[in-house]
Design a protein that fits this description.
By secondary structure, the chain is an alpha/beta fold. 33% of the residues lie in helices and 18% in strands. Strand 8 and strand 9 form a beta hairpin.
Length: 215
C-alpha cells in the first residue's frame, strides 16, 4: 500500500511518520510513503501556486497548473486513486476505512490549502473527495495523516497483534460498537477500583462483562 501525498507543507509529515507504529510499518516495507511539494511544480520564479478566485471572494485558491503537474508526476510511480480532502466529501468512518483498506490499493492524497483548489482540479483529476468531519481545517495535511493512519493500521502486519484492530471500537467483532472500558495496574488507585470481575480470572464472566459494557 503506497500513499503519495501532495502538499505545500511536507515538513508537517516528518515527525508524524517518523515515530511509533507508522515508522515501523515503513521500515518493514508494509506501507510506502512519498511526499511531494506542490510548490516544486510551480513554473514562475516566485514559485506561486495560488491566485485570487474569479467572481471575487475572500482568500486564495490553489491554481490548476502546479497541481496537474504534481498529480501527473505522482502517477508515474503510483497509479492509485486520487483523494482530495474536502468538506464536500464522504465521511471517513471505520466502515469506509475497512472498505478502502480491503482492496490494498495505492492512493494519491491531495492536500488543499487556503480557500481550496480550482474546481477544474476536482473535475479532471480527483477520483473521490473525503471528509474527516463536519468542521473546517486550515489545510488537508491533518486529514491526510488521519487517512494514512486509519488505513495503515488495518493492513496485516502493521500492528503487532491482529486482535488490536479486530477488537477496536467500530470493528466487526464488536458489531460496530465502541470498545468497553479498560484498566491496568494497580487494582486500586486513589480509592478507584478495577471491577472485580476483571480480577477474577473467570474468562467467561469477563467476556460477558465486556459485551455488556460495549457502547
Amino acid at each position: 500500500m503506497k500513499f503519495t501525498v501532495l502538499t505545500l507543507f511536507p515538513d508537517m509529515f516528518k515527525s508524524y511518520l517518523g515515530d511509533s507504529i507508522l515508522k515501523r510499518a515503513i521500515l518493514k516495507k508494509l506501507i510506502k510513503i512519498e511526499i511531494l511539494n506542490i510548490r516544486d511544480f510551480a513554473k514562475d520564479k516566485h514559485k506561486q501556486v495560488d491566485d485570487t478566485p474569479y467572481g471575487g471572494g475572500a482568500g486564495m485558491l490553489l491554481s490548476c497548473s502546479p497541481i496537474f503537474d504534481a498529480v501527473e508526476h505522482a502517477k508515474k510511480t503510483n497509479n492509485g486513486k486520487v483523494i482530495f480532502f474536502s468538506p464536500h466529501g464522504k465521511l471517513l468512518n471505520q466502515a469506509k476505512a475497512r472498505k478502502l483498506a480491503k482492496k490494498d490499493e495505492d492512493f494519491i492524497l491531495l492536500c488543499g490549502r487556503y480557500e481550496g483548489v480550482d474546481q477544474r482540479v476536482v473535475d479532471a483529476l480527483v477520483d473521490e473527495e473525503i471528509s474527516i468531519g463536519n468542521y473546517v481545517l486550515t489545510g488537508g495535511e491533518l486529514a491526510a495523516m488521519v487517512f494514512v493512519d486509519v488505513l495503515s493500521r488495518l493492513k496485516q502486519g502493521v500492528l503487532g497483534d491482529k486482535a488490536s484492530f479486530e477488537e477496536d471500537s467500530f470493528s466487526l467483532n464488536l458489531n460496530g460498537k465502541k470498545e468497553y472500558p479498560q484498566y491496568t495496574k494497580p487494582a486500586v488507585f486513589r480509592g478507584m477500583k478495577v471491577p472485580e470481575v476483571l480480577l477474577s480470572g473467570n474468562h467467561a464472566e469477563i467476556e460477558k462483562w465486556k459485551k455488556r459494557n460495549l457502547k
